[in-house]
Amino acid sequence: MLPLPSRFLSSLLLRLNGRMLLVDCGEGTQITMRELGWGFVNLDFILITHFHADHVAGLPGLLLSLSNYGRTQEVTLVGPVGLGQVVNSLKVIAPELGFSLKFIEFSTEDKYAAEIMLGEFRVSALPLSHSLPCLGYSISIPRKGKFDPRKAIALNIPIEYWKILQEGKSFLCYKPEMVLGPPRKGLKVSYITDTLPIDTIPDFVFGSDLFICEGMYGDEEYKEKGETNFHMTFADAAKLAVAAEVEQLWLTHFSPALTAPENYLERTKEIFDNTVVGHDRMTKTLKFVD
Amino acid sequence: MLPLPSRFLSSLLLRLNGRMLLVDCGEGTQITMRELGWGFVNLDFILITHFHADHVAGLPGLLLSLSNYGRTQEVTLVGPVGLGQVVNSLKVIAPELGFSLKFIEFSTEDKYAAEIMLGEFRVSALPLSHSLPCLGYSISIPRKGKFDPRKAIALNIPIEYWKILQEGKSFLCYKPEMVLGPPRKGLKVSYITDTLPIDTIPDFVFGSDLFICEGMYGDEEYKEKGETNFHMTFADAAKLAVAAEVEQLWLTHFSPALTAPENYLERTKEIFDNTVVGHDRMTKTLKFVD
Question: Cβ separation of A51 and B89 shorter than 8 Å?
Answer without folding.
Answer: no
